[in-house]
Amino acid sequence: MTGWDHLLAMMSVGLWGAFLGRPLIYALPVTFPAMMVAGAIIGMLGVRVGSVEVGIALSVLVLGSCIALSLRAPVWAACVVVGTFAVFHGYAHGRELPSAADPIGYSVGFVLATGLLHVCGIGTGMVNDLRGGILVTRMLGAVVAILGVWFFYEAFPS
Amino acid sequence: MLPPTLLSAAVGLALVYAAPRQWARAASLLAVTAFTVAMTPLPQAWLEGSFIGCWVSVAATAAMVHFPRGMGCGTGLVLSLNAGLWCGAVVALTGSRMDLVMALPAVLVVLPGAWMLERRAAIVVKVVSSWVIAVAVLAAALQLLPVTPGYLPDHIE
Questions:
Q1: Which residue from A18, A9, A17 is spatially nearest to A133, judged by alpha carbons?
Q2: CB contact, 8 Å: B148 with chain A?
Q3: What is the mean pLDDT of residues B111-121?
Q4: Nearest to A15 by CA among A111, A139, A109
């Protein structure tokens, strides 16, 4: 896994938000960085959290499934799901934070990259307004979920 | 350079919800305060505190965007005054006044922000402010850490 798990999860957050509409279209991309920072701080403090890879793989699987099944979760539930997974993603970034290189630059980079991936997801979700767009979005979600299964399988040590 | 830039941008984002006639007043107050403090000799012992104060102000100012009622006239001026103090302090202790000249124009983010708001795309302002808050909280946390864990094997390894 070379970052595709992160990338797909971030895009799925935006895509699911676009699918669910207001207020989640902005609540999810706002919740994610907040909780990701909490995870990053846990990682930076060196707190041991087991199976981060499993958590990240699960995020791809669950978020993809939510889109594929067109799950209309209540606002609080969607925020809890996204926020929980954001902690895992943030933790992974926090653990990788460079000591010698510019750590603030790295932090800015990963927050902005995450945000832009959400925006890409929201942009992709705009196809919902087109005829047959919802089907396209659900199919994209299904592809993400299938990849999530693969990431989940890979995350377990052999 | 980054902390004063982000703080100026946070003030700009917060001002999006203020009346346009307040923008010039708030921006002027920010600039005047920042340059005044930047020209004041400050003890080097305040360095760490000024950075923390700057990051906390970035997060608090950007968070104003999420208040549903927007900002009153007084709040905008208080935020600008506070931002000017911290921007000036950081520059006085670490940078040159040229840094302020380059950082303060970030307050002009109020213009595209207001344009978005007019087009009912307030979502963009809220999302961007959440990024600014995230960066500020991370940077403040980094400052309190003795060392980052980057020398350890990462989750891919």
A1: A18
A2: yes
A3: 85
A4: A139
**Does any CB of chain A come closer than 8 Å to the CB of residue B149?**
yes
- Binning pLDDT at 50, 70 and 90, where does residue B10 land? very high
What residue segments make up the domains of chain B, in order of their start?
A: 2-145
Alpha carbon of A144: minimum distance to chain B alpha carbons (Å) = 20
Contact B18, B83 (CB under 8 A): no
Q: Whole-model pTM?
A: 0.81
ipTM confidence score: 0.78
| Cα gap B2→A40, rounded to integer Å | 20
Q: Cα(B142)–Cα(B154) distance, rounded to whole angstroms?
A: 18
Q: Tell me, what DSSP letter sits at residue A127? A: G
Contacts of B1 in chain A (CB under 8 A): none
Asked if the C-beta of A25 comes within 8 angstroms of chain B's C-beta atoms, the answer is yes
Pair A115, A33: CB distance under 8 Å: yes
Structure tokens at B27: 């921006």
Distance (Å, whole) CA B145 – CA B85: 25
Any A CB within 8 A of B156 CB: yes
pLDDT for residue B147: 58
Cross-chain Cβ contact A37/B148 below 8 Å: no
Residues B37-64 pLDDT 10s: 888 888 888 888 888 899 999 999 988 8
Distance CA B18, CA B115 (A): 13
- Asked if residue B87 lies in contact with residue B4, where contact means CB atoms within 8 angstroms, the answer is yes
* Whole-number percent of chain A with pLDDT over 90: 9
- Calculate how close chain B gets to A20, using CA atoms only, in Å: 14
